[in-house]
């Protein structure tokens, strides 16, 4: 676990000493937008045109942020247009790494050993954390974007002109945008990142603040999902997929490892049915790997789990009936 400073790798855990024990997530640095015609997006440079075979996605199957991008790649039909490499679940002294002899965790594009080499290839003097997901542009030989919230927006529409892409599927429809944005804001701050704020806090008050806000939001989501099928109404949107990746990890990891233990998702009737329903959307189950998820958190985060022992439970069954058809 560490970061790059002027292009050199340093093995350092998150520093919460300057923020009173509070975990603050660093903003992503590569913020260009892939667009249908290569015109510039909301920020960054232009020149990143959506073309088949041009982009390569680096992910971890453990990471909830990378998971979003895999779901969009799958559901939009982008698999044959955007290749992917999956890092090894353990993120220790050298950060994310590949296993060159293991086809499941190989860097198929550069054959690098470490993810930080991808970042320094893009920017030799890079300073900052080396995170997944990262969307590599083979033409410009750089990271186009390493911000999942933006990568899923690109996947949602920029590649729609390519063969076999499901252009009918729109997870960010115009009419629902204000509602989606509002839900995302709260879910990001208190749930997606909220579990990390609880788990990485190094002061009691910071942990408790995150814990309270997290469960207030889960209660709010539970009430909403008891009345309507999805977060913004009767169709699945980006807001649902963003919540899904945190819910899928909750009982196996966040409940115990991050001390988010007021209750499990399985104890929320609406949220647990909703989680199962999203899991059962064709293609989604292929993107969920609970074994790698557990291995990553319990082995990598040694300040929280110094023994690196991975708990055996809980028993999860996301394939049970979801009971949400009537909503
Ligand atoms: N803002 C980024 C955050 C990505 C992120 O923090 N990924 C984690 C894995 S779950 C990571 O790579 N962390 C490495 C580190 O912080 O050093 C996004 O949503 O794309």
TrEMBL record:
Q: Which Pfam families match?
A: GST_C_2, GST_N_2
Segments forming domain GST C-terminal? 173-297
Q: Which InterPro entries match?
A: Glutathione-S-Trfase_C-like, Glutathione_S-Trfase, Glutathione_S-Trfase_N, GST_Omega-like_C, GST_Omega/GSH
Identify this protein by name: Glutathione S-transferase family protein
């Amino acid at each position: 676990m560490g970061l790059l400073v002027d292009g050199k790798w340093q093995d350092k855990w998150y520093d919460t000493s300057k923020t009173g024990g509070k975990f603050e997530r660093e903003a992503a640095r590569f913020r260009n937008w892939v667009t249908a015609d290569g015109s510039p997006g909301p920020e960054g440079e232009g020149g990143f045109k959506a073309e088949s075979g041009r982009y390569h996605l680096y992910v971890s199957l453990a990471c909830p942020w990378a998971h979003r991008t895999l779901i969009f790649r799958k559901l939009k039909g982008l698999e044959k247009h955007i290749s992917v490499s999956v890092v090894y679940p353990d993120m220790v002294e050298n950060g994310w790494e590949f296993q060159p002899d293991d086809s499941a965790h190989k860097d198929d594009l550069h054959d690098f050993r470490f993810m930080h080499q991808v970042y320094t290839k893009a920017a030799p003097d890079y300073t900052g954390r080396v995170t997944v997901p990262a969307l590599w542009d083979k033409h410009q030989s750089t990271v186009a974007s390493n911000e999942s919230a933006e990568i899923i927006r690109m996947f949602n529409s920029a590649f729609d002109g390519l063969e076999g892409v499901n252009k009918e599927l729109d997870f960010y429809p115009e009419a629902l945008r204000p509602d989606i944005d509002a839900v995302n804001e709260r879910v990001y701050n208190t749930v997606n990142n909220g579990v990390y704020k609880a788990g990485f806090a190094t002061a009691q008050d910071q942990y408790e603040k995150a814990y309270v806000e997290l469960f207030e939001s889960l209660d709010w989501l539970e009430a909403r999902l008891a009345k309507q099928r999805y977060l913004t109404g009767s169709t699945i949107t980006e807001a649902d997929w963003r919540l899904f990746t945190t819910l899928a990890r909750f009982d196996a990891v966040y409940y115990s490892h991050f001390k988010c233990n007021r209750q499990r998702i399985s104890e929320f009737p609406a949220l647990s049915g909703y989680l199962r329903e999203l899991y059962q959307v064709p293609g989604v189950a292929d993107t969920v790997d609970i074994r790698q998820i557990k291995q990553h958190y319990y082995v990598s985060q040694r300040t929280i789990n110094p023994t690196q022992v991975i708990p055996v439970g809980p028993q999860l069954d996301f394939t049970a009936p979801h009971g949400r058809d009537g909503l």
